[in-house]
Design goal:
This protein is an all-beta fold. It contains no helices and ten strands. It has strands at residues 5-7, 10-12, 18-23, 33-39, 46-51, 57-59, 67-72, 77-82, 91-98, 109-113. The strands form two sheets. It has a six-stranded mixed beta sheet with strand order 2-10-9-4-5-6, with no helix packed on it. A four-stranded antiparallel beta sheet has the order 1-3-8-7, with no helix packed on it. Strand 4 (33-39) and strand 5 form a beta hairpin.
């Protein structure tokens, strides 16, 4: 099992921006895909974005055009840039390694969007 370490998050006003990071040892050399998920209080964890080893990215309709997933291979770190934040974006954000690697989760980071 690989430990994924997340950072970023915090409190921001509607329309603001945050950048989340997720560091997973050697995930680029293992050619793992990475995913981000969002979980609001009392709701199921929902997929937000994916980044494949070949650079392909996909996004949930709810965040398309506002969130951007990116990678720094030298740091084995994946980022999720959150722009145009809305109150509905509030919740915990989790990263996860994915195919062809075993699924390992980060510890989560809290994002709160409020005036």
């Amino acid at each position: 099992q690989v430990q994924l370490v997340q950072s970023g998050g915090g409190l921001v006003q509607p329309g603001g921006s945050l950048k989340l990071s997720c560091t997973a040892p050697s995930f680029t050399s293992r050619k793992c895909a990475m995913k981000w998920y969002h979980q609001a209080v009392g709701k199921q964890r929902e997929w937000v974005s994916s980044l494949m080893d070949d650079g392909r990215t996909t996004y949930a309709d709810s965040v398309k055009g506002r969130f951007t997933i990116s990678i720094d291979k030298g740091k084995d770190t994946v980022y999720l840039q959150l722009n145009g934040l809305k109150p509905d974006d509030t919740g915990m954000y989790f990263c996860k390694t994915w195919w062809p690697c075993p699924e390992d989760w980060g510890q989560g980071t809290q994002v709160t969007v409020a005036s």
